[in-house]
Amino acid sequence: MQLRLDEYAHLDSPIHRWEPRAKFLALFALIIAFSMVRDLRVVPLMLAITAGLYALARLPVSFLIERLKYPGVFLLALVIILPLFTGSTVIAQIGFLSVRAEGLTYMVLVVSRFAAILTVSLVLFGTAPFMTHVRTLRRLGIPPLLADLLLLTVRYLFQIADTFQRMQIAMRLRGFALTRLNGRGASQLAGLLASLFIRSYEQADRVYHAMRLRGYGESSSPPAPLQPSVREGRKPAFDSPSLSLAMERGSGGEDVFEGNNMTPPALSITRLTFSYPGRPPVLNGIDLTVQHGERVGVIGANGAGKTSLFLTICGVLAPSSGEIRAGGELLPPGKVQPSIGLVFQNSDDQLFSPSVREDVAFGAVNLSLSADEVEARVSEALTLTGAAHLADRAPHHLSGGEKRMVAIAAVLAMRPRLVLYDEPDANLDSRARRRLIHFLQAAPHTLLLASHDLELILEVCDRVIVLDEGRVVADGAARTIMADQALMQAHGLEKPHSLIPHTHVLDAGSNSHE
User: Fold this and answer.
1) Does the N-terminal or the C-terminal CB of the chain have fewer CB atoms within 10 Å?
2) Per-residue confidence (pLDDT) for residue 84, from 0 to 100
3) What's the CA gap between 450 and 326, in Å, rounded?
4) 329 CB contacts (<8 Å, ≥6 apart)?
5) What is the DSSP letter of 385?
């Protein structure tokens, strides 16, 4: 279920044309007034005002019905429960159940108030783009913390609604149908709701990590620029003065020199271990060095430790032991660094603002940069990823490929020295995947790329490390490592299709081998 609260914001009605601040204050005051109704005699007037407003807004009736569907389950429960269990004056007897006057009155009040408040809320939020409401709240002086809560709340309404619909469809495809409220159906419905809340909690945790990685709640400052030399005769991947951190690719583990001085590696990991509470280690003494400009592929079977390695490098997880250095600087365990960016496997875990522009600006704002510098970084990152035309769109309305490039832009606006990509091609179609590959091939930063798509690794990375049970079991040139069929099979991997010699049929009776 897509909420799409502002899908009819383009209509032309007196409510649509109402000045945003006046509309917000008036309708919000009406909602407060409706919530205080206690007299049953006022209910007809309340419902008449509500119906008049909705008609004046010229919103389709289907818009209201669709959004009353799921709250209607809650209302139905109130209709059944309140008259039977509230009050003492019995007005009817249904078997062993008693219908009580006070409960019936209270039920009418509660249901009427709920329906009226929800309808007025739909008139408020359905007659203007959501970003207009955000700007209105800011102009009205709403504290930044409340604005943050509003943005995240709306974001979660969309996410939870979509998750609920997918889970409901999956249950229906496996025979679930709540045609009557029996014990089995109620138990299955309770399991659905419990799973929904657990998933929501887990995603909230991932979104919070994404916010921390972009400076939320941290006293961060912009990373000090690195100045690795550009090798003679070669040019940076992006020749733009604004991309001050564009750096030249190193070659397979060589140190980069500037004059007679050795530049520290972009990333140096020594004897890194990590384990989740009560579980065996998922990282077992990892040693790894990545030079400036390298593109390193990280491959391994499910459970090999790829995601845990990335979360530890960027400071979301604190290692059990070992050291991580970036540009020669020792990183405090479990403290996020603005110089290291992480692109999550699921783009929805990273996009939480009401517009693409605000999502990309989120990190730069948390770096306490000036408004001009924030705007410059946003424009730079969106242009670099080819997402500038999406700036004023809502992230949850984008396609999978668009979300991916916006998520990358949100990380690049921090101007990290090192970017970690965790399954960046997950759920992309072939065209979006090709566009992603072109971007990664020319990206101006050092990167580590974890993916089960070994063909993508071959196209993007010159070097590959193989993880198995939290250990680096192979490290070398990508084509050399992945062409070793015995090595790949020993660690739960398959040799990429493009590295396998193929036979072409010339005619019905003869073959030619490559």
Assistant:
1) C
2) 85
3) 19
4) 264
5) T
Mean pLDDT per 10-residue section of the chain, whose length is 514 residues: 68 92 92 91 94 94 83 80 83 84 88 92 87 75 66 64 69 64 66 71 76 68 41 35 37 38 86 90 94 94 92 92 92 87 88 83 84 92 91 84 92 92 88 90 91 94 94 95 93 88 56 47
pTM: 0.65
Tally the residues of the chain. Answer: 514
Q: Alpha-carbon distance 503 to 255, whole Å?
A: 42
Strand partners, 313: none
- Per-residue confidence (pLDDT) for residue 497, from 0 to 100: 85
Burial class (CB in 10 A: 0-12, 13-18, 19+), 230: middle
**506 SS3 class:** strand
Contact 23, 124 (CB under 8 A): yes
According to CATH, the superfamily of the domain at 263-503 is: P-loop containing nucleotide triphosphate hydrolases (3.40.50.300)
Cβ neighbour number for residue 389 with a 10 Å cutoff: 10
* Residue keyed to tokens 């990373």: 223
Q: How far apart are CA 473 and CA 285, in angstroms?
A: 11
Q: What is d(CA 455, CA 482) in angstroms, rounded to the nearest whole number?
A: 10
Q: What's the CA gap between 213 and 489, in Å, rounded?
A: 36
Three-class SS of residue 379? helix
**DSSP state letter for 498:** G
The Cα–Cα gap between 276 and 334 comes to 14
